[in-house]
Design brief:
Pfam families: E1_dh
Shape: globular
Helix content: 25-40%
Catalytic activity: N(6)-[(R)-lipoyl]-L-lysyl-[protein] + 3-methyl-2-oxobutanoate + H(+) = N(6)-[(R)-S(8)-2-methylpropanoyldihydrolipoyl]-L-lysyl-[protein] + CO2
CATH superfamily of the largest domain: Thiamin diphosphate (ThDP)-binding fold, Pyr/PP domains
CATH class of the largest domain: Alpha Beta
Largest sheet: 5 strands, parallel
EC number: 1.2.4.4
Mean pLDDT: 80
Number of strands: 16
Distance between the termini: 70 Å
Number of helices: 19
Number of domains: 3
Strand order of the largest sheet: 10-11-12-16-15
InterPro entries: Alpha-ketoacid_DH_E1_comp, DH_E1, THDP-binding
Radius of gyration: 26 Å
GO biological process, one term: branched-chain amino acid catabolic process
Length: 608
Protein backbone atom coordinates (compact mmCIF):
# COMPACT_ATOMS: atom_id res chain seq x y z
CA UNK A 1 0.00 0.00 0.00
CA UNK A 2 1.35 3.42 -0.88
CA UNK A 3 2.21 5.98 1.78
CA UNK A 4 -0.62 8.30 0.72
CA UNK A 5 -3.19 5.47 0.80
CA UNK A 6 -2.00 4.48 4.26
CA UNK A 7 -2.38 8.03 5.46
CA UNK A 8 -5.88 8.32 4.02
CA UNK A 9 -6.89 5.04 5.64
CA UNK A 10 -5.62 6.16 9.03
CA UNK A 11 -7.40 9.48 8.71
CA UNK A 12 -10.64 7.70 7.84
CA UNK A 13 -10.29 5.33 10.77
CA UNK A 14 -9.46 8.19 13.12
CA UNK A 15 -12.73 9.95 12.29
CA UNK A 16 -14.64 6.94 13.57
CA UNK A 17 -12.56 6.27 16.68
CA UNK A 18 -13.05 7.81 20.15
CA UNK A 19 -9.35 8.39 20.78
CA UNK A 20 -7.58 11.63 19.94
CA UNK A 21 -4.55 10.40 18.04
CA UNK A 22 -3.77 7.19 16.19
CA UNK A 23 -0.08 6.30 16.00
CA UNK A 24 0.98 5.69 12.44
CA UNK A 25 4.65 5.05 12.93
CA UNK A 26 7.84 6.60 11.66
CA UNK A 27 7.51 8.39 8.35
CA UNK A 28 10.80 9.65 6.92
CA UNK A 29 12.23 11.07 10.12
CA UNK A 30 8.98 12.13 11.81
CA UNK A 31 5.99 10.43 13.46
CA UNK A 32 2.84 10.81 11.41
CA UNK A 33 -0.44 10.80 13.33
CA UNK A 34 -4.08 11.16 12.48
CA UNK A 35 -6.11 13.42 14.74
CA UNK A 36 -9.71 12.79 15.68
CA UNK A 37 -10.67 15.44 13.13
CA UNK A 38 -9.13 13.37 10.38
CA UNK A 39 -6.34 15.76 9.31
CA UNK A 40 -2.86 14.36 9.01
CA UNK A 41 -0.33 15.84 11.40
CA UNK A 42 3.34 15.16 11.90
CA UNK A 43 5.19 14.99 15.19
CA UNK A 44 8.46 16.62 14.25
CA UNK A 45 11.61 14.69 15.09
CA UNK A 46 13.54 17.94 15.24
CA UNK A 47 12.29 18.78 18.73
CA UNK A 48 12.93 15.20 19.84
CA UNK A 49 10.79 14.88 22.99
CA UNK A 50 9.01 18.22 22.91
CA UNK A 51 5.97 17.29 20.76
CA UNK A 52 5.73 20.08 18.25
CA UNK A 53 3.16 19.27 15.57
CA UNK A 54 3.39 20.44 11.99
CA UNK A 55 0.04 20.32 10.17
CA UNK A 56 -0.27 18.36 6.94
CA UNK A 57 3.45 17.81 6.44
CA UNK A 58 5.83 14.93 6.86
CA UNK A 59 9.23 15.94 8.21
CA UNK A 60 11.87 14.61 5.82
CA UNK A 61 14.47 12.09 6.88
CA UNK A 62 17.80 13.71 7.71
CA UNK A 63 20.28 13.05 4.95
CA UNK A 64 24.02 13.31 4.76
CA UNK A 65 24.93 16.68 3.40
CA UNK A 66 26.20 16.52 -0.16
CA UNK A 67 25.46 18.41 -3.38
CA UNK A 68 23.96 15.28 -4.90
CA UNK A 69 21.26 14.90 -2.21
CA UNK A 70 19.87 18.25 -1.13
CA UNK A 71 17.85 18.01 2.11
CA UNK A 72 14.59 19.71 2.86
CA UNK A 73 15.05 22.73 5.09
CA UNK A 74 13.49 23.94 8.25
CA UNK A 75 14.06 27.52 9.29
CA UNK A 76 13.55 28.70 12.85
CA UNK A 77 12.06 32.17 13.11
CA UNK A 78 13.33 34.44 15.84
CA UNK A 79 9.98 36.19 16.20
CA UNK A 80 8.14 33.15 17.55
CA UNK A 81 8.62 29.49 18.35
CA UNK A 82 6.77 28.12 15.31
CA UNK A 83 8.82 26.58 12.53
CA UNK A 84 8.51 27.58 8.90
CA UNK A 85 8.39 24.55 6.65
CA UNK A 86 10.27 25.21 3.43
CA UNK A 87 9.47 23.42 0.16
CA UNK A 88 11.88 20.69 -0.96
CA UNK A 89 14.85 21.84 -3.00
CA UNK A 90 14.45 20.59 -6.59
CA UNK A 91 16.85 17.87 -7.62
CA UNK A 92 20.01 19.29 -9.11
CA UNK A 93 19.62 22.66 -7.42
CA UNK A 94 22.42 23.76 -5.11
CA UNK A 95 22.16 22.05 -1.72
CA UNK A 96 20.96 24.19 1.15
CA UNK A 97 22.42 23.38 4.52
CA UNK A 98 19.54 22.47 6.82
CA UNK A 99 21.55 23.27 9.90
CA UNK A 100 22.16 26.79 8.67
CA UNK A 101 18.54 27.26 7.64
CA UNK A 102 17.43 26.54 11.20
CA UNK A 103 19.63 29.38 12.34
CA UNK A 104 18.81 32.01 9.69
CA UNK A 105 17.30 35.26 10.84
CA UNK A 106 13.97 36.43 9.51
CA UNK A 107 13.68 39.56 7.39
CA UNK A 108 12.90 41.79 10.36
CA UNK A 109 15.99 40.70 12.25
CA UNK A 110 18.16 41.19 9.17
CA UNK A 111 16.84 44.71 8.68
CA UNK A 112 17.45 45.57 12.31
CA UNK A 113 20.97 44.15 12.14
CA UNK A 114 21.66 46.26 9.05
CA UNK A 115 20.40 49.43 10.74
CA UNK A 116 22.53 48.73 13.80
CA UNK A 117 25.70 47.98 11.84
CA UNK A 118 28.69 49.84 13.13
CA UNK A 119 27.28 50.39 16.62
CA UNK A 120 28.96 49.04 19.72
CA UNK A 121 28.67 45.25 20.06
CA UNK A 122 27.64 45.35 23.68
CA UNK A 123 24.72 47.69 22.99
CA UNK A 124 23.30 45.61 20.10
CA UNK A 125 23.87 42.09 21.33
CA UNK A 126 20.80 40.25 22.63
CA UNK A 127 21.50 37.43 25.06
CA UNK A 128 19.95 34.29 23.52
CA UNK A 129 17.35 32.22 25.31
CA UNK A 130 17.89 29.26 22.98
CA UNK A 131 20.80 27.69 21.12
CA UNK A 132 21.04 25.47 18.07
CA UNK A 133 23.96 23.24 17.19
CA UNK A 134 24.38 20.77 14.32
CA UNK A 135 21.22 18.88 15.21
CA UNK A 136 17.82 20.45 14.62
CA UNK A 137 16.89 20.55 18.31
CA UNK A 138 16.47 24.01 19.84
CA UNK A 139 17.94 23.99 23.36
CA UNK A 140 16.82 26.37 26.13
CA UNK A 141 19.68 28.25 27.84
CA UNK A 142 20.11 28.67 31.57
CA UNK A 143 22.69 30.83 33.32
CA UNK A 144 22.27 28.82 36.52
CA UNK A 145 24.34 25.66 36.86
CA UNK A 146 21.96 22.78 37.28
CA UNK A 147 22.68 19.09 37.80
CA UNK A 148 19.69 16.98 36.83
CA UNK A 149 19.54 13.94 39.10
CA UNK A 150 18.24 10.53 37.96
CA UNK A 151 14.76 10.88 39.48
CA UNK A 152 13.98 14.17 37.77
CA UNK A 153 12.14 14.38 34.50
CA UNK A 154 13.94 15.93 31.58
CA UNK A 155 12.93 19.62 31.77
CA UNK A 156 10.61 20.83 29.02
CA UNK A 157 11.32 17.74 26.96
CA UNK A 158 14.73 19.17 26.02
CA UNK A 159 17.64 19.19 28.46
CA UNK A 160 18.75 22.79 29.18
CA UNK A 161 22.26 23.95 28.37
CA UNK A 162 24.32 25.78 31.01
CA UNK A 163 26.16 28.90 29.87
CA UNK A 164 27.91 31.72 31.71
CA UNK A 165 29.43 33.76 28.87
CA UNK A 166 27.61 34.83 25.71
CA UNK A 167 29.19 35.23 22.26
CA UNK A 168 29.86 38.92 22.83
CA UNK A 169 32.06 38.24 25.87
CA UNK A 170 29.51 39.28 28.53
CA UNK A 171 28.26 37.11 31.38
CA UNK A 172 24.57 36.27 31.31
CA UNK A 173 22.34 37.99 33.87
CA UNK A 174 19.63 35.34 33.66
CA UNK A 175 16.94 37.73 32.43
CA UNK A 176 16.63 36.00 29.07
CA UNK A 177 17.07 32.41 30.21
CA UNK A 178 14.99 29.94 28.25
CA UNK A 179 14.73 27.62 31.24
CA UNK A 180 13.81 28.45 34.84
CA UNK A 181 13.52 25.97 37.68
CA UNK A 182 14.80 27.34 40.97
CA UNK A 183 14.18 24.07 42.81
CA UNK A 184 16.79 22.30 40.71
CA UNK A 185 19.54 24.90 40.89
CA UNK A 186 22.86 24.05 42.51
CA UNK A 187 22.96 26.22 45.63
CA UNK A 188 25.67 28.79 46.17
CA UNK A 189 27.19 26.74 48.98
CA UNK A 190 26.86 23.42 47.18
CA UNK A 191 29.91 21.24 47.84
CA UNK A 192 32.06 24.29 48.58
CA UNK A 193 32.80 23.30 52.17
CA UNK A 194 34.17 20.00 50.94
CA UNK A 195 36.91 21.94 49.10
CA UNK A 196 36.64 19.56 46.19
CA UNK A 197 36.65 22.12 43.40
CA UNK A 198 39.62 22.49 41.07
CA UNK A 199 41.96 25.44 41.44
CA UNK A 200 41.65 26.86 44.94
CA UNK A 201 40.88 30.52 45.58
CA UNK A 202 43.56 32.57 47.28
CA UNK A 203 43.19 35.90 49.02
CA UNK A 204 45.50 37.67 46.62
CA UNK A 205 45.27 41.09 48.24
CA UNK A 206 48.60 40.63 49.98
CA UNK A 207 50.07 38.33 47.35
CA UNK A 208 52.19 38.88 44.29
CA UNK A 209 51.30 40.77 41.12
CA UNK A 210 49.41 37.88 39.54
CA UNK A 211 47.24 37.31 42.60
CA UNK A 212 46.45 41.01 42.89
CA UNK A 213 45.48 41.29 39.22
CA UNK A 214 43.12 38.33 39.39
CA UNK A 215 41.66 39.27 42.77
CA UNK A 216 40.87 42.77 41.56
CA UNK A 217 39.44 41.48 38.32
CA UNK A 218 37.28 38.95 40.16
CA UNK A 219 35.90 41.67 42.43
CA UNK A 220 35.14 43.82 39.37
CA UNK A 221 33.25 40.96 37.70
CA UNK A 222 31.24 40.19 40.84
CA UNK A 223 30.10 43.80 40.99
CA UNK A 224 29.28 43.96 37.28
CA UNK A 225 27.48 40.60 37.21
CA UNK A 226 25.81 40.09 40.62
CA UNK A 227 23.72 37.22 39.29
CA UNK A 228 26.92 35.27 38.59
CA UNK A 229 28.76 36.40 41.74
CA UNK A 230 28.93 32.93 43.27
CA UNK A 231 30.20 31.26 40.09
CA UNK A 232 32.73 34.04 39.54
CA UNK A 233 34.07 33.72 43.08
CA UNK A 234 34.40 29.96 42.86
CA UNK A 235 35.72 29.75 39.30
CA UNK A 236 39.30 28.56 39.38
CA UNK A 237 40.11 30.21 36.05
CA UNK A 238 39.48 33.59 37.69
CA UNK A 239 41.65 32.75 40.70
CA UNK A 240 45.44 32.63 41.09
CA UNK A 241 47.14 29.26 41.31
CA UNK A 242 48.51 28.06 44.64
CA UNK A 243 51.89 27.51 42.96
CA UNK A 244 53.77 28.93 39.99
CA UNK A 245 52.96 27.33 36.63
CA UNK A 246 56.21 26.01 35.20
CA UNK A 247 55.26 26.69 31.58
CA UNK A 248 54.28 30.35 32.13
CA UNK A 249 56.36 31.15 35.23
CA UNK A 250 53.40 32.80 36.96
CA UNK A 251 50.37 32.07 39.14
CA UNK A 252 47.99 33.84 36.79
CA UNK A 253 45.49 31.19 35.70
CA UNK A 254 43.61 33.40 33.26
CA UNK A 255 46.78 34.46 31.44
CA UNK A 256 47.82 30.82 31.23
CA UNK A 257 44.41 29.89 29.85
CA UNK A 258 44.66 32.41 27.00
CA UNK A 259 48.22 31.39 26.17
CA UNK A 260 47.41 27.68 26.16
CA UNK A 261 44.40 28.12 23.90
CA UNK A 262 46.58 30.09 21.48
CA UNK A 263 49.40 27.55 21.82
CA UNK A 264 47.14 24.61 21.04
CA UNK A 265 45.67 26.33 18.02
CA UNK A 266 49.14 27.14 16.64
CA UNK A 267 50.34 23.60 17.30
CA UNK A 268 47.33 22.16 15.50
CA UNK A 269 47.83 24.43 12.50
CA UNK A 270 51.57 23.82 12.15
CA UNK A 271 51.43 20.06 12.76
CA UNK A 272 48.64 19.69 10.21
CA UNK A 273 50.71 21.63 7.66
CA UNK A 274 53.68 19.37 8.45
CA UNK A 275 51.56 16.34 7.59
CA UNK A 276 50.52 17.93 4.30
CA UNK A 277 54.22 18.48 3.55
CA UNK A 278 54.93 14.78 4.13
CA UNK A 279 56.90 15.34 7.33
CA UNK A 280 54.29 13.68 9.58
CA UNK A 281 52.30 10.59 8.68
CA UNK A 282 49.08 11.62 10.41
CA UNK A 283 47.55 14.35 12.54
CA UNK A 284 44.21 15.28 14.06
CA UNK A 285 43.22 18.79 15.18
CA UNK A 286 40.82 19.97 17.87
CA UNK A 287 40.08 23.47 16.56
CA UNK A 288 36.86 24.79 18.07
CA UNK A 289 36.94 22.49 21.11
CA UNK A 290 39.64 24.18 23.17
CA UNK A 291 37.19 25.47 25.80
CA UNK A 292 36.21 21.90 26.64
CA UNK A 293 39.85 20.87 26.99
CA UNK A 294 41.08 23.64 29.24
CA UNK A 295 37.82 24.42 31.03
CA UNK A 296 37.44 20.81 32.12
CA UNK A 297 41.04 20.03 33.02
CA UNK A 298 41.52 23.23 35.02
CA UNK A 299 38.69 22.06 37.31
CA UNK A 300 40.48 18.81 38.15
CA UNK A 301 43.18 18.00 40.69
CA UNK A 302 46.51 16.36 39.89
CA UNK A 303 45.44 13.05 41.45
CA UNK A 304 42.50 12.81 39.06
CA UNK A 305 43.16 10.40 36.20
CA UNK A 306 42.33 11.40 32.61
CA UNK A 307 41.38 8.93 29.90
CA UNK A 308 41.05 10.66 26.55
CA UNK A 309 40.03 9.69 23.07
CA UNK A 310 42.23 11.06 20.26
CA UNK A 311 41.16 14.72 20.29
CA UNK A 312 42.37 15.66 23.77
CA UNK A 313 45.69 17.44 23.29
CA UNK A 314 44.49 20.27 25.54
CA UNK A 315 44.09 18.32 28.82
CA UNK A 316 47.57 16.90 28.43
CA UNK A 317 49.00 20.32 27.58
CA UNK A 318 47.35 21.91 30.64
CA UNK A 319 48.92 19.27 32.87
CA UNK A 320 52.40 20.10 31.64
CA UNK A 321 53.06 18.03 28.51
CA UNK A 322 55.53 20.15 26.54
CA UNK A 323 55.50 21.08 22.88
CA UNK A 324 58.67 19.02 22.47
CA UNK A 325 56.94 15.96 23.91
CA UNK A 326 54.01 16.44 21.54
CA UNK A 327 56.38 16.73 18.57
CA UNK A 328 58.48 13.73 19.66
CA UNK A 329 55.38 11.55 19.84
CA UNK A 330 54.11 12.63 16.43
CA UNK A 331 57.51 11.89 14.86
CA UNK A 332 57.82 8.60 16.82
CA UNK A 333 61.45 9.34 17.58
CA UNK A 334 63.74 8.00 20.30
CA UNK A 335 62.45 10.58 22.81
CA UNK A 336 58.83 9.51 22.37
CA UNK A 337 57.47 8.23 25.69
CA UNK A 338 55.68 5.49 23.75
CA UNK A 339 58.96 4.41 22.08
CA UNK A 340 57.45 4.85 18.63
CA UNK A 341 54.91 2.06 19.08
CA UNK A 342 51.83 4.24 18.65
CA UNK A 343 50.67 6.20 15.63
CA UNK A 344 50.84 10.01 15.90
CA UNK A 345 48.51 11.83 18.36
CA UNK A 346 48.21 8.72 20.58
CA UNK A 347 49.78 10.44 23.56
CA UNK A 348 50.15 9.23 27.12
CA UNK A 349 51.98 10.19 30.31
CA UNK A 350 52.17 8.17 33.50
CA UNK A 351 53.68 11.16 35.33
CA UNK A 352 50.68 13.34 34.43
CA UNK A 353 48.02 10.69 35.19
CA UNK A 354 47.00 10.58 31.54
CA UNK A 355 46.30 7.13 30.09
CA UNK A 356 47.71 6.26 26.69
CA UNK A 357 45.17 6.76 23.92
CA UNK A 358 43.80 3.83 21.94
CA UNK A 359 42.31 4.20 18.46
CA UNK A 360 39.09 2.16 18.72
CA UNK A 361 36.15 4.27 19.84
CA UNK A 362 34.86 3.88 23.37
CA UNK A 363 37.45 1.48 24.76
CA UNK A 364 38.51 4.01 27.39
CA UNK A 365 34.98 4.27 28.84
CA UNK A 366 34.84 0.96 30.77
CA UNK A 367 38.54 1.40 31.58
CA UNK A 368 37.69 4.72 33.24
CA UNK A 369 35.20 2.90 35.44
CA UNK A 370 37.95 0.55 36.57
CA UNK A 371 40.22 3.51 37.32
CA UNK A 372 37.47 5.23 39.31
CA UNK A 373 36.74 2.05 41.27
CA UNK A 374 40.42 1.79 42.16
CA UNK A 375 40.52 5.44 43.24
CA UNK A 376 37.46 4.90 45.44
CA UNK A 377 38.93 1.79 47.04
CA UNK A 378 42.27 3.53 47.66
CA UNK A 379 40.55 6.49 49.31
CA UNK A 380 38.51 4.15 51.50
CA UNK A 381 41.65 2.25 52.50
CA UNK A 382 43.40 5.50 53.39
CA UNK A 383 40.44 6.54 55.53
CA UNK A 384 40.40 3.17 57.31
CA UNK A 385 44.11 3.52 57.97
CA UNK A 386 43.38 6.67 59.95
CA UNK A 387 44.99 9.23 57.66
CA UNK A 388 42.35 11.71 58.78
CA UNK A 389 41.84 14.89 56.79
CA UNK A 390 44.75 14.03 54.52
CA UNK A 391 42.71 11.21 52.98
CA UNK A 392 40.21 13.79 51.76
CA UNK A 393 42.93 15.50 49.72
CA UNK A 394 43.88 12.16 48.17
CA UNK A 395 40.42 11.49 46.81
CA UNK A 396 40.27 11.52 43.05
CA UNK A 397 37.98 10.95 40.10
CA UNK A 398 38.44 9.43 36.69
CA UNK A 399 37.77 11.87 33.86
CA UNK A 400 36.79 10.18 30.61
CA UNK A 401 36.55 12.15 27.35
CA UNK A 402 34.88 10.84 24.21
CA UNK A 403 32.88 12.05 21.22
CA UNK A 404 29.20 11.55 20.51
CA UNK A 405 30.12 8.83 18.01
CA UNK A 406 31.36 6.67 20.88
CA UNK A 407 27.89 6.64 22.40
CA UNK A 408 26.87 4.19 19.68
CA UNK A 409 29.40 1.63 20.92
CA UNK A 410 28.66 -1.13 23.40
CA UNK A 411 31.57 0.09 25.54
CA UNK A 412 29.65 3.30 26.23
CA UNK A 413 26.56 1.53 27.49
CA UNK A 414 28.36 -1.14 29.50
CA UNK A 415 30.70 1.48 30.96
CA UNK A 416 27.89 3.73 32.16
CA UNK A 417 26.00 0.78 33.60
CA UNK A 418 29.06 -0.46 35.49
CA UNK A 419 29.80 3.03 36.80
CA UNK A 420 26.29 3.47 38.16
CA UNK A 421 25.93 0.01 39.70
CA UNK A 422 29.43 0.01 41.22
CA UNK A 423 28.99 3.62 42.41
CA UNK A 424 32.21 4.92 40.91
CA UNK A 425 33.42 8.55 41.05
CA UNK A 426 33.84 9.03 37.31
CA UNK A 427 32.97 11.96 35.05
CA UNK A 428 31.97 10.99 31.53
CA UNK A 429 32.50 14.02 29.30
CA UNK A 430 31.00 13.71 25.84
CA UNK A 431 32.29 16.26 23.35
CA UNK A 432 29.28 16.60 21.08
CA UNK A 433 30.93 18.34 18.13
CA UNK A 434 28.28 17.48 15.57
CA UNK A 435 30.06 14.78 13.57
CA UNK A 436 31.59 11.35 14.08
CA UNK A 437 33.90 11.52 11.08
CA UNK A 438 31.15 11.99 8.45
CA UNK A 439 28.16 10.82 10.50
CA UNK A 440 25.99 13.74 11.60
CA UNK A 441 24.27 13.76 14.97
CA UNK A 442 21.00 13.53 13.03
CA UNK A 443 22.00 9.98 12.14
CA UNK A 444 23.74 9.19 15.42
CA UNK A 445 20.83 9.17 17.87
CA UNK A 446 17.09 9.78 18.09
CA UNK A 447 17.19 10.93 21.71
CA UNK A 448 17.65 14.44 23.08
CA UNK A 449 21.38 14.37 22.53
CA UNK A 450 23.62 12.35 24.82
CA UNK A 451 22.95 13.71 28.31
CA UNK A 452 19.35 12.50 28.20
CA UNK A 453 20.70 8.95 28.51
CA UNK A 454 21.94 9.64 32.06
CA UNK A 455 18.65 8.99 33.94
CA UNK A 456 18.29 5.64 32.21
CA UNK A 457 21.51 4.52 33.85
CA UNK A 458 20.64 6.09 37.19
CA UNK A 459 23.17 8.90 37.08
CA UNK A 460 23.19 12.69 37.16
CA UNK A 461 23.81 14.77 34.07
CA UNK A 462 24.75 18.25 32.91
CA UNK A 463 24.53 19.79 29.46
CA UNK A 464 26.97 22.67 29.03
CA UNK A 465 27.94 25.13 26.32
CA UNK A 466 31.23 23.61 25.23
CA UNK A 467 32.35 26.91 23.69
CA UNK A 468 32.13 28.72 27.04
CA UNK A 469 35.31 27.94 28.95
CA UNK A 470 33.98 29.37 32.23
CA UNK A 471 30.79 27.31 32.07
CA UNK A 472 32.73 24.13 31.28
CA UNK A 473 35.03 24.76 34.24
CA UNK A 474 32.07 25.33 36.57
CA UNK A 475 30.23 22.25 35.33
CA UNK A 476 33.22 19.94 35.79
CA UNK A 477 34.00 21.47 39.19
CA UNK A 478 30.47 20.70 40.41
CA UNK A 479 30.46 17.28 38.78
CA UNK A 480 33.72 16.39 40.52
CA UNK A 481 32.36 17.47 43.89
CA UNK A 482 29.13 15.57 43.30
CA UNK A 483 30.98 12.42 42.21
CA UNK A 484 33.23 12.38 45.28
CA UNK A 485 30.55 13.29 47.78
CA UNK A 486 28.10 10.69 46.49
CA UNK A 487 30.48 8.06 45.07
CA UNK A 488 28.50 8.36 41.87
CA UNK A 489 29.14 8.99 38.17
CA UNK A 490 28.11 12.10 36.25
CA UNK A 491 27.51 12.39 32.50
CA UNK A 492 28.35 15.77 30.94
CA UNK A 493 27.49 16.70 27.37
CA UNK A 494 29.52 19.59 26.02
CA UNK A 495 27.86 21.09 22.93
CA UNK A 496 30.49 22.31 20.48
CA UNK A 497 31.51 22.16 16.82
CA UNK A 498 34.42 20.50 15.05
CA UNK A 499 35.82 23.25 12.85
CA UNK A 500 38.48 21.14 11.18
CA UNK A 501 38.40 17.90 9.21
CA UNK A 502 38.10 14.73 11.26
CA UNK A 503 41.78 14.13 10.59
CA UNK A 504 44.34 14.59 7.85
CA UNK A 505 42.80 11.50 6.22
CA UNK A 506 39.42 13.22 5.90
CA UNK A 507 37.83 15.78 3.57
CA UNK A 508 34.81 17.14 5.42
CA UNK A 509 33.66 19.17 2.40
CA UNK A 510 32.21 15.90 1.11
CA UNK A 511 29.54 15.83 3.82
CA UNK A 512 29.14 19.40 5.08
CA UNK A 513 29.24 22.81 3.45
CA UNK A 514 31.91 25.46 3.83
CA UNK A 515 29.13 27.88 4.79
CA UNK A 516 28.25 25.72 7.78
CA UNK A 517 31.84 25.60 9.01
CA UNK A 518 32.26 29.36 8.60
CA UNK A 519 28.98 30.01 10.39
CA UNK A 520 30.01 28.16 13.54
CA UNK A 521 33.59 29.44 13.36
CA UNK A 522 32.33 33.02 13.34
CA UNK A 523 29.46 32.55 15.80
CA UNK A 524 30.73 30.11 18.42
CA UNK A 525 34.53 29.99 18.36
CA UNK A 526 35.67 29.51 21.99
CA UNK A 527 38.96 31.36 21.59
CA UNK A 528 37.26 34.32 19.94
CA UNK A 529 34.72 34.43 22.78
CA UNK A 530 37.45 34.45 25.44
CA UNK A 531 39.35 37.21 23.63
CA UNK A 532 36.19 39.33 23.46
CA UNK A 533 35.65 38.79 27.17
CA UNK A 534 39.17 39.90 28.08
CA UNK A 535 39.14 42.96 25.82
CA UNK A 536 35.59 43.98 26.75
CA UNK A 537 36.48 44.05 30.44
CA UNK A 538 39.92 45.57 29.81
CA UNK A 539 41.66 42.75 31.60
CA UNK A 540 45.40 43.22 32.18
CA UNK A 541 45.83 45.38 29.07
CA UNK A 542 44.85 42.54 26.72
CA UNK A 543 44.77 44.00 23.20
CA UNK A 544 44.93 42.66 19.66
CA UNK A 545 48.61 43.59 19.58
CA UNK A 546 49.33 41.63 22.77
CA UNK A 547 47.45 38.61 21.47
CA UNK A 548 49.40 38.72 18.20
CA UNK A 549 52.61 38.89 20.20
CA UNK A 550 51.64 35.73 22.11
CA UNK A 551 50.74 34.00 18.85
CA UNK A 552 54.15 34.77 17.36
CA UNK A 553 55.89 33.49 20.50
CA UNK A 554 53.93 30.24 20.46
CA UNK A 555 54.38 29.78 16.72
CA UNK A 556 58.14 30.07 17.13
CA UNK A 557 58.12 27.58 20.00
CA UNK A 558 56.08 25.06 18.00
CA UNK A 559 58.35 25.34 14.94
CA UNK A 560 61.41 24.92 17.13
CA UNK A 561 60.00 21.75 18.72
CA UNK A 562 59.05 20.41 15.29
CA UNK A 563 62.55 20.90 13.85
CA UNK A 564 64.22 19.28 16.86
CA UNK A 565 61.89 16.28 16.81
CA UNK A 566 62.45 15.80 13.09
CA UNK A 567 66.22 15.54 13.55
CA UNK A 568 66.12 13.00 16.38
CA UNK A 569 66.85 9.33 15.62
CA UNK A 570 64.19 6.64 15.67
CA UNK A 571 63.89 4.26 18.64
CA UNK A 572 66.09 1.14 18.51
CA UNK A 573 64.49 -1.71 16.58
CA UNK A 574 64.74 -4.07 19.54
CA UNK A 575 62.14 -1.92 21.31
CA UNK A 576 59.60 -3.72 19.13
CA UNK A 577 60.13 -6.75 21.37
CA UNK A 578 60.70 -5.24 24.80
CA UNK A 579 58.31 -4.18 27.58
CA UNK A 580 55.96 -7.10 26.95
CA UNK A 581 57.57 -9.76 29.14
CA UNK A 582 60.10 -9.38 31.94
CA UNK A 583 62.17 -12.13 30.29
CA UNK A 584 61.78 -12.55 26.54
CA UNK A 585 60.22 -15.97 25.80
CA UNK A 586 61.77 -18.26 23.13
CA UNK A 587 59.02 -17.52 20.58
CA UNK A 588 59.64 -13.78 20.76
CA UNK A 589 63.43 -14.28 20.80
CA UNK A 590 63.12 -16.33 17.62
CA UNK A 591 61.22 -13.52 15.89
CA UNK A 592 63.86 -10.99 16.96
CA UNK A 593 66.65 -13.23 15.63
CA UNK A 594 64.89 -13.64 12.28
CA UNK A 595 64.37 -9.89 11.92
CA UNK A 596 68.01 -9.20 12.83
CA UNK A 597 69.23 -11.65 10.17
CA UNK A 598 66.91 -10.11 7.57
CA UNK A 599 68.14 -6.56 8.25
CA UNK A 600 71.78 -7.70 8.20
CA UNK A 601 71.20 -9.27 4.80
CA UNK A 602 69.89 -6.00 3.32
CA UNK A 603 71.90 -3.21 4.98
CA UNK A 604 71.25 -0.73 2.16
CA UNK A 605 67.49 -0.97 2.74
CA UNK A 606 67.57 -0.85 6.53
CA UNK A 607 69.81 2.09 7.34
CA UNK A 608 69.57 1.95 11.10
Amino acid sequence: MSSSRKANLIAAVAKQQPFANLWRGLERGGILTASSGGEIRCLSSHANSSRHYEDNITVPRSRRLSPARPPNGITKKNSNRKREILPPVPKGEESVQSTLQSLKEDDTTKAEAHDLAGKDLQSTYVSPSELSFTGDTVIPVTSRLHIVTPKEDTPRGVWPIFRMMDEDGTFRDGSNDGYHNEDKIVSNDSFVNARLNGSKINGGANGNKHESILSGFRAFLREQYPNQASEIERNGLLSPSESVFADTDSKNTLDRLLRHMLRLREMDSIFQDAQRQGRLSFYLTCRGEEAIHFGATSALENQDVILGQYREQGPLMWRGFTLQQFADQCFNNASDLGKGRQMPIHYGSRALNYHTISSPLGTQIPQAVGVALRLKMSAAAAADAGDGSDSQNKKGVAMCFFGEGSTSTTDFHSGLNFAATLKCPVIFFCRNNGYAISTSVKEQYASDGVVSKAPGYGMAGIRVDGNDVFAVHAAVREARAYALENNAPVLIEGMSYRQGHHSTSDDSSQYRSIDEVEHFAQKSDPLDRLEKFLKLHEYDDITDEKIQSIIQEEKGAVLDALRKAERKPKPPVEDLFTDVYKDMPPSLQSQWNSLSEHMAKYPDVYKL
